[in-house]
Amino acid sequence: MSYELFKFLHVVGVASSVTALTIVLVMDKPVHHIRGLSLIASSLILISGSLMVYYGNYYDTPVPNWILIKLIIWFLLFLSGAVFSKKLKRHRIPSLVLLLVAGLLSAAMGIFKPF
Asked: What sign has the CA pseudo-torsion 97, 29, 72, 3?
């Protein structure tokens, strides 16, 4: 298994997760398969991201802060998708914008590695 494969799977997971969360937040009654896709995509993001860290030679040093921040953002996005789709029916568009901004912040952490 190569680093590039896990990077590709990570991007596919992110794209699937963003698509599923957008559908869940925009539709009045989303199909349950879409919520399942969001769960599978979130799991794919976590697993492929963890393997990217392992194959990226971060396993013999302390975990950098940017990886911890990405994990926290991932966890919050994972939980917020379920909560926002059920509880915030009136505030769907602001919720979607908030999720997209958090996703972009997570992507910036992975690309620029500021810490």
From this structure: negative
